[in-house]
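Supplementary Note 2. Why include the ligand at all?

Several targets in our set were suspected to adopt different conformations when bound, so apo predictions alone were not considered sufficient. For every target with a known small-molecule partner we therefore ran a joint prediction. The input for protoporphyrin IX containing FE is given below.
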Amino acid sequence: AEGDAANGEKVFKKCQACHMVGDDAKNRVGPPLNGVVGAPAGRVEDYKYSPNLLELAEGGLVWDDETLTAYLTKPKDVIPKGKMSFAGLKKESDIDDVIAYLQTFE
Ligand code: HEM
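The joint prediction is reproduced in token form.
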């Protein structure tokens, strides 16, 4: 779905405790999210992912609109033993918007 990247920037405040985007993005609690939309899961080389995420990445998990929407709605539904301690976003439009925002970072 088409999201509003400007609202997505506001929604991303909920992610910023753990994730960076942009030129100087580094690992925090979570990996940097530049280029994540459309990319295979677990691709940041120097980030220590959970074994469960890496297992699913081996199985072909790719972060497209559908998988990102499911993950951001309820992380444990996609990666049951993953380490993203985040309750999830309640509004579907916020999810579309944060994906649109992430899409602006290569
Ligand atoms: C992983 C997005 C909030 C901690 C991820 C991944 C995405 C993502 C796409 C997978 C990255 C990859 O495969 O390279 C988001 C978004 C958020 C959010 C859009 C806000 C809406 C948070 C928060 C925390 C967090 C608040 C910390 C409390 C993590 C961790 C991982 C992760 C630790 C690694 C998961 C694992 O290895 O199982 N996040 N996240 N995230 N995120 Fe988040």
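The mean pLDDT is 97. DSSP finds five helices and no strands in the chain. Comparable summaries for the other entries are listed in the accompanying table.
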